[in-house]
Every structure is written in C-alpha cells, then in structure tokens.
C-alpha cells in the first residue's frame, strides 16, 4: 500500500483550525498523520479513502496545532501558591531564591514531571523551560529527560548567573545562585548542549538569568555559544519598570540598547517578557528579528506591566506566549494566557480592537513554533504532527459560532481531550499515557512540603 493511500492516524470530523492563512478552518475536517508528520489535511469526505491504522472520531471537537509555551520555570512547581503580594525583585531575593536553593536534583526532576504533565494535559506540545535550580549539568539533563518522558518536545535553557555583577551586588541579588564564575558557567552549558544538541526532542540552550543583573560577559558568551553550537539563547529582559532604570544607573544605557550595541540581538535571541521598551528599543528588537516570550498572566500577577504587542509584531519581532513558572502564574495553561493576552491589551488601551482572538491563537501556535525553531504550529502536509484536540460540547463552549474565538475566550486546558506530539498520542481522554500521573502528583506533594520546610518559607 502506498503512502498516498494510508496513514497511521486519522483525526476525522472535527473543526480543523489549521492556522494556515490559505486554508483557515475546515469544518467537518480531517487530519492524517504518517510517522511524525501531517500527511494530509482536508474535509472528512476528502480523506475518507485513506486506510488508517487508527481512526479517531473528532466530531464535536476542534483540532488545532499543538500549543507552544515559550517561557516557563518547571522547577517552581513545588512552590505553587506561595510568595504572594511581592514585587518581582523582592520575590526573587526573599522567596524564590531561598526556595530554589533548597531544591535537590530529585526535587527538580519531580517538579519538571509535574509541570510537563500539567502542560501536556492542557494541550501544550512543546515548551521552553528556563531552568536554574539547581543548574548542575546532571540536574539540567534530568529535567530535560523528565520533559521528554511525558512526551513533550522543546528546550531546557540552562539558567546561569555567572560572576556577580555590580547590579546584583548592589541590589541584594548575589546569593547562592551565583555559584560559578562566568567562564565555568559557559563550559558547563557547553557540556549540556553536547549531551542534548540541536535536533534532540528536548535540547539545551544557554539561559542567563536576566539581562539586567547578569554579568555582561556572560551575556556576550551566551550569544557566542549559541552561534557556535547552533542553538538559541534565552534570558529575562525588561520585565519591570525598575529594570531599565537600574541598568541605566549602572551602565548609562538600557538592557536592550546594550544588547543591540554589542550585536547580541537577532533570530537566536529570545527575551522573556520584554515589557518596558522605548520606541527605539522596539525598533531594535523588530529590525533584528529578535523573539519575545509574552507572559500576560504572570505580568499581571506581579503587576509588572503590559507588553507593546502590536508595536513589536509590526516592527518585525517574533512574539509568542509563555505561561511563566507555577509560582508566578500558578497554572501551565496557555488557554488562560491566550484570553489574557487579548484582554490586557484592550484594558490597557481602552480599545476593544487593541487585540483579537486570532492574534492570540497565532501567538500560542504558529509563532511559538517559530520562536523554538520547531517545524510545527500549522496543520499542513509535511509539518510535524503536533496536534491538540479540544472538546467543544461542554456548556461553557456551547454554542461556538466562531471556533477560534471560542477556543481563546471560553476553552480551558481541562477541555483538551487529546495531545499528540510527533504523531504519538501522549494525552488521551484528558490523561497522560506515558507516565503515572497519580504517582507523580503524590510524590510532588510530599516533596513540596519538605522543600518549603527546608527553605523556611512556610
């Protein structure tokens, strides 16, 4: 039987939200998967002649590209619901870093399993985990293995602090996470990338903590390492109003302007948050094709500010969505992030047309895949078969005249029925099939209590 007449998996009868501008939404549609790729997209009638190893009746569902989370911190999963009501830098120095210092390798691995399960159940197929607690190579690789064990793909950006900068020292941020010199951090990251190079299901990138308080040589070295090894690199940048002010006081410029001056912006550079940018900095980010991971829920949680979304996209930046960590968002649910991405723009500008559902859906799928360099994000022949199937029959999704709008405004992660990564079903009937969810939750709960006690935060 030829490949043209067979497939491994046929999803048929659903509303197929392709995210392909030419195809749009295919009502009573079908998606065929052969190996790890989409082999055909069309109406159910058009694909009815395919002989499928498995056929899934998707009537009453939306079938869309897998969601992509471009910024999270899975290690925070054991601190969920703690640390409320603190500005970001105090939250870091007085809560998150003492917590992080109390984590063991096994704590971090279990937290990663917990977060990856939550993400997969909510339709996420790929994620970028900015991991820095603990950040020894063995733990970084254990975290990557945990994400892969659940069935997801993506990146673990190895968090680095390097030699304490003057900003870190002056603002009380030079604690235990500044464990190694800049040169040592870069060599440790090189070893991690060698173990999980580009093309791995879960690869490793350099991930300096934050442009504002990281050693400048560490940032230059991270960008150089990414160019040499063919990876991206990832760092927090301009997250709060304080960031550019503090940086200007220390260096006479702003974080983004400094990155631009040193040629560190570009397609390999992915900045988390990127909120507080001037007009000139927006142009710098856009003209260089730099990517920004937009975290609308955590930005509101910390009262950090509102991203200049349309200005950045119009300037040429790649903007995608991130959940951020479970202690600064509390949920690994990109449906929530899509809705908030729209609403925060409208409220901030007092303009109901400041953002729309289609834009948010693009950020969570097509643009997220662009940021991670994954050949997914669109349901089209030849693309990776990363797919999310969302049930539309619940009262809160009835009726759904506009399927895309219903997904953004009404759907929740708990509405996901099936998550498929590279043609493999990793979530079915709302539960992960590769791992024992109940055992992970039970162990995470025990470890969370122990970590909080050791860190002295409860």
TrEMBL record:
Keywords: Hydrolase. Pfam families: Amidohydro_1. Residues 63-426 form the Amidohydrolase-related domain. GO terms for molecular function: hydrolase activity, acting on carbon-nitrogen (but not peptide) bonds. InterPro entries: Amidohydro-rel (IPR006680), Metal-dep_hydrolase_composite (IPR011059), Metal_Hydrolase (IPR032466), MTA/SAH_deaminase (IPR050287). SUPFAM superfamilies: Composite domain of metallo-dependent hydrolases, Metallo-dependent hydrolases. It comes from the Bacteria. This is 5-methylthioadenosine/S-adenosylhomocysteine deaminase. It comes from Jiangella alba.
């Amino acid at each position: 039987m030829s490949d043209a007449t067979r497939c491994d998996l046929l999803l048929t009868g659903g509303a197929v939200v392709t995210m392909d501008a030419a195809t749009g939404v295919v009502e009573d549609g079908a998606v065929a998967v052969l190996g790890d790729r989409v082999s055909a997209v069309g109406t159910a009638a058009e694909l009815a002649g395919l002989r499928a190893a498995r056929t899934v009746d998707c009537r009453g569902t939306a079938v869309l590209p897998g969601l992509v989370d471009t910024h999270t911190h899975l290690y925070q999963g054991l601190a969920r619901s703690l640390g409320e009501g603190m500005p970001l830098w105090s939250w870091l120095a007085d809560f998150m870093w003492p917590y992080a210092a109390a984590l063991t390798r096994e704590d971090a691995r279990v937290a990663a399993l917990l977060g990856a399960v939550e993400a997969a159940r909510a339709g996420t197929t790929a994620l970028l985990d900015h991991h820095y607690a603990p950040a020894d190579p063995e733990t970084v690789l254990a975290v990557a293995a945990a994400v892969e064990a659940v069935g997801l793909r993506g990146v673990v950006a190895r968090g680095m602090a390097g030699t304490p900068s003057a900003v870190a020292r002056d603002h009380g941020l030079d604690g235990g996470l500044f464990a190694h010199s800049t040169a040592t951090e870069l060599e440790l990251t090189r070893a991690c990338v060698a173990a999980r190079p580009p093309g791995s299901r879960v690869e490793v990138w350099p991930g300096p903590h934050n442009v504002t308080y990281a050693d400048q040589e560490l940032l230059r070295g991270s960008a150089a390492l990414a160019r040499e090894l063919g990876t991206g690199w990832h760092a927090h940048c301009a997250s709060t109003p304080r960031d550019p002010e503090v940086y200007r006081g220390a260096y006479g410029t702003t974080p983004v302007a400094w990155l631009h001056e040193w040629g560190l912006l570009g397609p390999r550079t992915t900045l988390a948050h990127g909120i507080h940018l001037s007009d000139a900095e927006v142009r710098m980010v856009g003209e260089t094709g730099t990517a920004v991971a937009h975290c609308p829920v955590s930005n509101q949680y910390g009262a950090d500010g509102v991203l200049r979304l349309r200005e950045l996209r119009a300037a040429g930046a790649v903007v995608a969505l991130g959940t951020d960590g479970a202690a600064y968002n509390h949920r690994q649910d990109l449906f929530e992030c899509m809705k908030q991405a729209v609403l925060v723009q409208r409220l901030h500008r007092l303009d109901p047309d400041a953002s729309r559902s289609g834009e948010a859906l693009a950020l969570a799928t097509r643009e997220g895949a662009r940021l991670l360099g994954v050949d997914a994000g669109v349901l089209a022949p030849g693309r990776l078969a990363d797919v999310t199937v969302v049930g539309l029959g619940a009262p809160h999704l009835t009726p759904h005249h506009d399927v895309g709008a219903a997904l953004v405004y009404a759907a929740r992660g708990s509405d996901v029925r099936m998550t498929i990564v590279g043609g493999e079903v990793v979530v079915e009937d709302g539960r992960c099939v590769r791992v024992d969810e109940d055992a992970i939750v039970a162990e995470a709960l025990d470890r969370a209590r122990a970590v909080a006690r050791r860190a002295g935060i409860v």
